[in-house]
Each structure stands twice: as structure tokens, then as C-alpha cells.
Amino acid sequence: MLAERIARIQSTALSKIESAGKLEELEAVRVEALGRKGELALLSKELGKLAPEERAEAGKLLNAAKQALESRLEDRKRVFAAAALNLRLESEWLDLTLPAPGIRPGSLHPVTRIQREIEDLFTSLGFTVVDGPEVETEHYNFDALNIPPSHPARDMQDTFWLTDGHLLRTHTSPMQVRAMEKFGAPLRVIAPGRVFRNEEVDASHEHTFYQLEGMMIDRDVSVAHLIYFMKTLLSHVFRRDVTVRLRPGYFPFVEPGFELDGQCMICGGSGCPVCKQSGWLELLPCGLVHPNVLRSGGIDPEQWNGFAFGLGLTRLAMMRYKIDNIRLLLGGDLRFLTQF
Amino acid sequence: MKFSYRWLSELVEGLDTDPRELTRLITMKTAECEGVEHVATLLDQASPARVISVEPIGDSHNRRVVVETPAYGVRTLVCGAPNCRPGLMTVYVPVGRKVIEGVESDGMLASGKELGVNNDHEGIVELDPEFPFASDWIIEVDNKSLTHRPDLWGHLGMAREVAAITGRRVTDPVRMSLLPQGESAILVEIENYELCSRYSALLFENVTVRPSPLWLQYRLEAIGLNPINNIVDVTNFVLAELPQPMHAFDAAKLRGGKIIVRPARPGESVPALNGETYATDSSNLLICDAEGPVAIAGVIGGMESSISDSTTSIVLESANFNAASIRKTSTRLKLRTDASMRFEKSQDPLNTARGLARAVELLQQVSPGIRLVGGLVDNWRQAPAPPPVTLPLDWMDRKLGTELPADEVRRILESLHFTVKSKSDRVLSVAVPSWRATRDVSIKDDLVEEVGRMVGYASITPAPPQTPTVVPPGNPERVFEHRIRDLASAQGFTEVYNYSFFSDEMLKAFRMDADSLVEVANPIASDRRFLRNSLVPGIWKNIVDNVRHLDYFRFFEIGKEIHLRPGLPPEERPRFLAAIYSRQDATPALFELKRLAECLLKTVRVDMDAEPREFEHPRRVGLVRCGDSDVGRLFEFHPNLVETGRAAVLDLDLTMLQVLQPPVKPYQPLRRFPTSAFDLSVIVPPRSKAGDLHSVLAAAAGESLVEIDFLRTFALPDGSNSISYRITIGASEKTLSNEDVTAIREQLIAAVQARGWSIRG
Lengths: 340, 761
Ligand SMILES: [Zn+2]
Description:
The structure holds two protein chains of two kinds.
Chain A: H1 2-19, H2 23-34, H3 39-46, H4 52-91, H5 110-124, E1 128-129, E2 135-136, H6 138-141, E3 167-168, H7 174-183, E4 187-196, E5 208-218, H8 223-238, E6 244-248, E7 254-263, E8 280-289, H9 291-296, E9 305-312, H10 313-321, H11 334-337
Parallel strand pairs in A: 1-4
Antiparallel strand pairs in A: 2-3, 4-5, 5-9, 6-7, 7-8, 8-9
Chain B: E1 2-4, H1 5-11, H2 19-29, E2 33-39, E3 47-56, E4 63-69, E5 73-79, E6 89-100, E7 103-109, H3 112-115, E8 136-141, H4 155-166, E9 187-190, E10 196-205, H5 214-222, H6 230-241, E11 247-250, E12 258-263, E13 269-271, E14 277-279, E15 285-288, E16 293-296, E17 300-301, E18 314-321, H7 323-332, H8 338-343, H9 351-366, E19 371-380, E20 389-392, H10 393-400, H11 406-415, E21 419-424, E22 427-431, H12 444-455, H13 476-490, E23 494-495, E24 501-502, H14 504-509, E25 530-531, H15 536-546, E26 552-565, E27 568-582, H16 587-600, E28 605-607, E29 616-626, E30 629-637, E31 646-653, H17 654-659, E32 676-684, H18 690-701, E33 705-715, E34 721-729, H19 738-754, E35 758-759
Parallel strand pairs in B: 9-12, 23-26
Antiparallel strand pairs in B: 1-8, 2-8, 3-4, 3-6, 4-5, 6-7, 10-18, 10-19, 11-18, 12-15, 13-14, 15-16, 16-17, 20-22, 21-22, 24-25, 26-27, 27-31, 28-29, 29-30, 30-31, 32-34, 32-35, 33-34
The structure holds zinc ion.
Zinc ion binds next to loops of chain A.
């Protein structure tokens, strides 16, 4: 009977599908059973010979058998594909601990790093970062800062004089007057830069180092404001609250002038060799801008006043990275510089 | 400047603050102390001793000595001092019990040096009756923090501060009544009162020159002044106390009974106390007698008129000299003395007579029988006292950022010897004491400091300012520099900072012409004489130094070239330099640097029309350009400079780099029609430049060009090169047909052939 033959073909094909070990065997089964010249195709040709009612019945059986086989074939194909994919993935194991090709990133100079942090802080506080010349005039470096030629304060700074009468700036303070001239009042600026002292060098003294000058001019700027900014600055740099103290310090361009000390970060104030047992580290000279300096910058001291401070960037970098020899900073030794 | 705690105690009534605490208070309120040292500590356990007997020990220079002391009774000890003799009053210290030369020695008799009383180690101390058996504490104050305080160069000045800090009274050691009245026996002429505003002097006779009593030697020794003889020691004592520098002349050596204060005349020189002879000029002020110079005013006395053992009469000078003039002289003669250091801070003219009064009292103690001859000489052109300073208290409150009651301000100022009057409820009129008025305090801002430091800045609460928020002016140059730093470091370059000077080594290696460099007038080392007008030598030095440790490295520097401009101030030009060193081969290094240049400025190219400089590899140097503008140079170091390995350098003008950054422009719409591409391989003669071929192809493709991509180049057996490009073309309004593409390709081939090159394959 036709129905039996269909059932037989189906069951034979199904068992071949189950036993197929690879994709090609499945394909062979498909061609044999479902192909244009396959067993089911041959059977379907015989349908014409049947009576119409039998033909409909047999057609249904034939279609059902086709669908069952096709569906099973698809299932089996998916299994084979998944296995093949797994095999491929398994073979593609990569050792990700191998170094990445190409060049390693370089480093920024420790002074650059600390300088940028401070620039970013002050920019966020409404300050402008200004740059100035390394070759200065006597006027900006001394006279305009209330340091006339006979002033003993000139001894504090051993100056590189140039043969044409210029000099290498001994501090970033000339930028106070230059900024006042350029921007007028009110004013908030910082001026980081390279400064020079004509001195003997050793592990803690360099003839070339970096400072950062800061200045704020407005109506009624007070010592209270100065302390606020200095505390903010130091907490930012040292990434923690820093206890500070202000004591008298003499600088001709400020009045009153201060030395701002921070509590020693090494010993926490109990005394150690770094702070010479005092518990304090001298961090920044600062003060209220001397009226003569405001006048030098073309600003009326009866209308405006301000504070100024000077930060030793080199010293700060040395403190942060515990650098014990200042000459490493401009020594160009890449074994040192690549550490930052 | 060293301060003796005992000396201060004599000047401050009832001072009992611990010396270490006092040191801290001085730092917080007056001037920075560098430390405090306990000195002459042996004296705390020492005792006066009378030598009872001295017996020899065999042939030894040591002798067995028995002494009697009030504190320790009778002691036997061994002593080698030649001046040890029965009956001598000396000092016994109960330290060092041991057997010497078979004798049990219990303690020691001390020399002045051992005790810290003077510098004498020849023998044991010969005690005089007034000697204090007590150690001292020496507080050392940073001289820099005393620059503006002429008064703090003496103990009395510091005593005034200590009294104000501790709420005590200060004792003035000067008794003006000791100054003699009547006609003076000497004549003083001052040529220029600007340079010497006051010259006071006294003549003494029946003088005995001998060592000072021990108490005086101890006082001077403790603060670092060497005891010399009683007369000189008294002048040094007054210098360290008031502080009034003085000078004692041997009156017998002064010619013509007259002193003239005047600028040096051409050719004059002064043989000084220290054995040197100083050639002076008209900027130096001299003290002269009727015949010539006897001292350099305010700096050093002359040799001939100095005090000697045979001196029997003296002229004691106590004068006030112009600070700037003294400073100039001391700088010119390279001679800084205890006197010049004080005068250059602007001393109080009132102190000249006070100094003499103090000296009279001391000289009577140390040179018994001394007699004054005549009255005080006092040649003085007194400057008018400066007007009182008006101090508005509300203004001061705003400056300090705290509110202070008027009474408190008044109390503080008066404790510092200012004379305070009320102008109105909240305005004071403040007269400055003479010793603060010479330079230190003249405006109301100076008074803010006086009040602030005494109140203590710790009492001020930090507060943010109440100011409007405004966007500050920008600094695009600095932002650009930082961007470049980030870019370079991301590309593997490490930042170096080099000095602004050329070392001798660099000058030599680069055969530089020193005349073209900015020069330092006062170099203290030969590696700091010339300023760099190029960053290249510094980079070279970095390479040479690092080659010793590393086989491959890359680094960069951003710094300023400083250029000499005749007749104009030196010009500073910011540069960016990057370098790659490789022990193997640096050909790719040059291209890595070229790529870095392209990262910094997309549109740069490298042209090969550079005139090679001596330190450059003549066949590996290019000019970095953008459009018509020069941006810098790309080169490899000449093997003469870098012997092993290769080092490539990119040297760019930072300003040009920024100026040439492409402007903001609207984007180009994406192509609507597909493009076509074809490859061309061109055979060119040796040393032809790919850049030239590129230009030819680009020009020939004209408007239809979308992209030219370099594929590869290689040398052919005959020495010519094959260079391959992939050319992408397209049109904005249509898809190119095969015929279009072929036509353009033919166009390109024709252009290549027109240059005499051929197409490969
Ligand atoms: Zn510490």
C-alpha cells in the first residue's frame, strides 16, 4: 500500500538522518529521500493513478512525510553548524597577556603635571593663566616690585645679568606688574614659569627652577581671602585638608608679607628630619600687594587692593614625588623621567 | 643674626619664657628663626676653683693639681696648662674621672674654649670676679627676614619685640646722662650730609688696652663675635646691642686733631684693619684726618690708626651713614662687615649719641681709670621727623578680614612703641618710633602688618571673596601647548626640560659662534655663559647621555629659544622638539617623526630643499612646511655627533604650528555616487622623490581626484625604483563610466610619461 511505502521511506530516511555523522551525509539523505528524483518524488508520480479520494489522502501523507523529514534535517544541520562553530571558536584561542604592539605612551614632566593641576584649579576659580618672558628688564624684575637698586633685598636673589643690561628673571613676580598693565583691575591671574638664580648648585639648589605666581585684585581683598585661596590650593595639591599657619615674612612687593607654612605631611606635625623637627614646612610666600606695586601696574591703591603669592613648583613636585635631588629635574635622564 | 637669651633677659623685665617657646613665638610674630642652640652648657655644672698646689709628675708636662671649690670641695686632678699655678682662680668642671700618668684625676680645669667663653685654648681660664656661671641659649634668626628691620640687628630691638610678645617691659640700657657736657676736643667736618647725616665722637685718655673681662668675652663669643681687646669688644658689644656700629681710633695716630667725612678722591686707597688695601673711588665714603683716609666709612677701619697694646688715648666714632652708599661700597669692595650689614639697613640716627653713652659706661668697667676729654662732638643735620601715619580702623579691618576693637589696636601699637592718638572714633594717628622710621614703617599698610602679626593671623577665619563670576580671558597658546604635550606623550614621547644655557661642550660640538648668542655678564660657571638660541644642542646632549643606558628612546621638549637682536631686546621663540634614538636603524624614526608632525598639524609636508647644517646628515634632512610657510625641520644627526646608532629630530616652531591650525569650516557633503579606483606602478630613476610623482598624479587627475594612497616602493635590479599608488576618482553628479575611468587613467599615464617616467606592467 502507498501509505505503508511512505511510512517505510520516512522511517528509513529518519534513521539515516539520525545516524549521519557529518553535513555531507545529511545532504545525501536529503537527496535520496526529498530530491527531485528521490523516493518521495517517485511516489508522488504514482499518485495520478489513484482514485481522487485516495489521491487526496495519499497526498496528505506524502506532504506530512516530506515536512517531517525536512524539519528533522534542519534540526540536525543546526546541531552540526553549532558544533562546527564551537570547533572554530575553540581553535581561535588568543594569549591576551602578550604585549600590545606599537609604542608605549610617554610621560609628562613632573613639573608639567603639577603645574597643570594648579592651572586647572585656578582656571576653575576664575583666574587667567598668563605667560611672560624669561629675559626680563630690571624694571619689571626689581624696580616695579618696590625693590630699588640699593635695596638689600636684591641680595636675596643672585641675578644672571646679560651683557645688554637685561636679566634672566629671578622670580615670576614680574608677571604681577605685566598682568596689571595688560588687564587692569579687577584681576585674577596665575603665571607659572621658569626662573633663574645665579647660584652654586647642589642636591637642593638649582640655577633654573619653576615658580607659579598668583595675584588677585579687587575691592577689599583681605588676608582672610588670601588664606582661603591658599588652603584651597594646598588641599588640592596634596589631595587632603592641609593645616596651615601664617607668619610674618618679608618681601618688598607685599605689605603685610607672610610665609605660609603647612603642617608637615611626613610626621603630621610631631617633628621629623624633613621639617627640621618643627612640624611645619614652609610652602608659600604671600601677602597683600604693596601699594607701590599697584601703582607700578597703573592701579590706584586707594580704589583697589589685592593679594599675591608665589609657589615653588619645583619644590612642590619634589615634595609630591619625594625627589631628593633637584638636579634630576633638568638632567634629562629618561630612566627618571619615564617614571611619571 | 644670633641672639643670646641671657642678653635678652637682661633687657626684658622678668623674662621667663622657655627659650624654645620664645623661638617659636619670634618666628610666628616677628622673624623666622632658624633654630635655637644651648651653648656653654659646661658652665651649668662648673664651679670657681682656687688652685692650692701644683706638683710635677716625673718628666711629664702634666702636673698633679689640687683645687678647692665651693661646690665640690677639694679635688685632685691632672692638668697640663702652663698657666696653672698656686693661688690662681679658675674654673673646675666635674667631668672626666680617670687615671692619667698614674694619678687619679677627678674632673678638669677648663680653658675658655672648652667652656665656650672665648676662643682661648692656650691655658685654663683665669677667672675674674663678675663671671656668671650659667649656660646660654642662642636663637638664630634668618638674616633675610631682617632685611627691612634695622632695629633687629641688635639685642635691644629684639628685646622690644620679645617684651611686646610676652606682655613685659623693656629696659633701656642707655643712660644719656653719662655723656660729657662742654666744648669738644675734636673737630668733625661732614662734606655731604646725604651720605653721613650724623657723626658723633668722644675722646678718651688714660686708656688701658687688655683682654676684656670674661663676662664680656662670653657675651660676644656666644653670638659669634670674636673677643679681641677691651676697647674693640666694647664697640662690638654696642653694635650687637643697640645696634650702633662704632669704631675706635688710636687718638695719637690721628693727625691734625680733626676728622673729615668725605667721598674718596681719585687714586686714594686705604690700608685696612684686615691687612688688605682697598682702592677706593668717589662712590666710597671715607673718614679722614687732616692728612688722609683713616677708615672706609661704615665698612672697615684703617690699619694705621687702629688700637694696639700701646694705645693710651682713643677717639670713639659713632656715626650714621647712608644705607645705599654703604651697600654700594661694600658690594664694590666685596667686603661685608658687621658694621656694613647694619648700616645698609638704614640705622636710626638717634643711636649715635646713645651708642656713645652706652660705651662710656662699659669702658669705665673694662678700662679702669679711663678719662673723657672734652664734651661730645655731635655734627648732625637732623631730618624732620616723618609725619604720623593716619590709620582708618575700618580700612584695616577690611584688609585683615577681621574686626578688631580700637583699644586692642592701640594696645598693640603702643606695646611696639608707636605713639597713638585718636583722630576720630575709628581713625588713629600713629607716630613711628625713630628706630622704625628710617625705612621700615611709613604708610598705613605697614601698620596693618604690625597689628596683624601681633594679633596673630591664626585668629583670621578664611573666607571666599564675594565677587561676581566672570569668564576670565583665555590663553590659547598655553592650551595649545598642553594639547601638544598630551599628543606627544600619547605617541610615546617623554617630556624633558633642558637648561636655557649652552654648555662649553655644546658650543664646541655645534661649532657655535658665540657672537651670535645672548651672553650672561656675570657667569659663575662656564656652562652658564650663553643662552640657547636653539633647543637642538640640549636634545643632542640628552641623546648622548641616555645612550649610555638605553638602546631605543623617544622624547620631546617644549622650550624657548632666546635670540640676539642687535639694538633690540632678545627675542624668545617657543619651539617643540621631538627626537627618536635607535641603536639599530633610524630610517623609520624619521617617518615616525613625520607622522608626529602630521598629528600636530594635518596639512604639513616635508620638502627636501633644505641646506644641510653641519650637525645634520646631509642626505636625511627636510623642511617641514605648510602651504608657503616654514614650520620647522626634520633631520637625522650627522654621525660625527651621534656615533653609534641613529638619532632623528623634529624641530618645530610652536607659534607657526598654532597659527597654521586649520580654521573651523563647514563639512563636505558625502558623495552620492560611487567612486572608482585603479593602481598605477611607475618606474622612476634613482633618488626620484615620491612627493614629485604624487604631485604629477594629483595634477593630472584634476577635479575627479578623490584620494591618492601610497601603496609601496621597491628598487629594481637596474637601480631605478618602482612606486605604486592607488588612485581613487569620482564625480559629484554621476557614476563614472568605464570609459570615463579609462580616459582619466590614460591622462595620468600620459602625464607620468611626459616626465620621462614609465609605467610598470
Ligand atoms: Zn615633619
